[in-house]
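ARCHIVE CARD
Drawer: 12
Card no.: 0347
Subject: one protein chain, sequence and derived structure
Cross-reference: see card 0346
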Amino acid sequence: MSITTTTAFNLLPDGSIVMQGDHAPGVSGAKPFSELGVQSQRKNLGSYEIRGPSISLPDGWRATVYRDENDEPTLRIRLLPDADVLTVLTSDPASGEPKDIVHMLTLRVSIASA
């Protein structure tokens, strides 16, 4: 039987996930994050892939973007779910050009787990 677990984690500019400290992943379910099978990588400038079993976007809150000293968002994001991969595209809010994550990007996703 498959159980859906929701998790929130912080993605860094190099595509890695913060695994320790105050910004470590949180999980709403019985399994720890390390057993959910979530993997991430930076593909290109402003393009990241998050992989996980039947990864999907939950209802409600999905992402938090770092804000600058004027409380303006440092990025625009597009979340594109497809089968076992979530593509995250980030761009400059003013120019629309691809831009890597500034500081970190918090994502919330759902993962199927046995």
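Annotation on reverse: Residues 58 and 82 are 14 Å apart (CA to CA). The radius of gyration is 14 Å.
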